[in-house]
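Why should sequence recovery work at all? Because a backbone constrains its sequence more than one might expect. Tight turns favour small or flexible residues, buried strands favour hydrophobic ones, and helices have their own preferences. The token representation captures these environments compactly. In the example below, the structure is given first.
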């Protein structure tokens, strides 16, 4: 028993000194920013951060979240960032020249560690503007990536296995939005059935090297927050919860609710991670299957290898960050 305690103590010291060495090396190199010492990626596994419901010209908590997002990306050596939609409030962008690109994105997310790939999804507020402009901006910005309203990308993990990231456009599946062409000018041209067919085909891959299937969309399957009993939420659950389970989707990442939630109802295969605290926050709550729920500004971190996924929920404060919750998924 004493030997076991010694080994644990030694490993803790090794981790602590490793973090101190990392921080010291950055300071020596001239870095003048902040750190989040509690965050670490010891095995240099694939890491990505998830941000949602954020574009508000720096208002509410957007600047605080942006600052800590950059600090987290530095500590975790993040490879990319995922946005779950509502990238620009209240009415999306009008064009690639819209002031929102600078006021809500380029001039807010300025930390050098955030100049990595951003894989963006569309939200309902984005559909109030010109979604083609968000797609076209991919050819202007080095970091903004939205090749189409829905798309997929595969990432190689350290052990040779892969993660499949599938980005949906969920608004065409929300019945209450249909027929409102003035409010959602591009929605009529989106074919929901065609997208669903593509989704099934993409997630039905026969590639045995894919260890994890992760779907990104704006609208939640479940919520303990404002939209807990909303018809749109219930309808979306009925369309996709069983489907995701049958296709062995490990994680569904979403937003729409302005809080941070993790939900896995009893009997379900897919775990939902809701990261909608990118600027404004609203009261959160629980429902059956709630694992975590907080009405806080912040984001989520995913660290992944072929066998293991660590998800950390991070609260953003003005001059610091706090890890609110840590969860582990093991490959089934």
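From this structural description, the recovered sequence reads:
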């Amino acid at each position: 028993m004493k030997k076991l305690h010694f080994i644990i103590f030694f490993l803790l010291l090794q981790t602590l000194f490793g973090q101190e060495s990392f921080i010291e090396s950055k300071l020596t190199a001239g870095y003048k920013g902040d750190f989040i010492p509690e965050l670490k990626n010891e095995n240099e596994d694939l890491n990505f951060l998830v941000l949602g419901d954020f574009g508000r010209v720096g208002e509410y908590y957007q600047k605080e979240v942006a600052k800590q997002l950059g600090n987290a990306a530095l500590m975790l050596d993040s490879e990319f960032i995922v946005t779950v939609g509502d990238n620009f409030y209240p009415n999306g962008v009008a064009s690639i020249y819209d002031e929102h690109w600078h006021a809500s994105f380029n001039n807010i997310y300025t930390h050098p560690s955030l100049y990595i790939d951003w894989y963006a999804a569309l939200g309902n507020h984005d559909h109030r503007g010109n979604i083609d402009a968000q797609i076209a901006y991919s050819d202007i910005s080095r970091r903004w990536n939205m090749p189409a309203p829905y798309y997929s990308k595969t990432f190689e993990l350290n052990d040779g296995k892969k993660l499949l990231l599938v980005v949906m456009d969920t608004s065409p599946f929300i019945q209450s939005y249909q027929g409102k062409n003035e409010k959602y000018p591009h929605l009529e041209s989106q074919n929901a059935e065609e997208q669903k067919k593509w989704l099934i085909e993409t997630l039905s891959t026969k590639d045995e090297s894919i260890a994890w299937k992760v779907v990104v969309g704006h609208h939640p399957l479940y919520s303990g927050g404002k939209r807990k009993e909303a018809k749109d939420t219930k309808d979306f659950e009925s369309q996709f919860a069983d489907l995701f389970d049958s296709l062995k989707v490990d994680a569904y990442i979403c937003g729409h609710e302005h809080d941070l939630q993790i939900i896995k109802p009893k009997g379900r295969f897919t775990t939902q991670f809701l990261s909608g605290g990118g600027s404004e926050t609203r009261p959160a709550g629980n429902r059956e299957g709630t694992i975590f729920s907080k009405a806080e500004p912040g984001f989520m971190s995913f660290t992944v290898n072929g066998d293991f996924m660590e998800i950390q929920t991070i609260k953003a404060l003005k001059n610091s960050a706090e890890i609110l919750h840590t969860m582990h998924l093991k490959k089934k």
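A few observations help interpret the result. The first strand starts at residue 46 and ends at 51.
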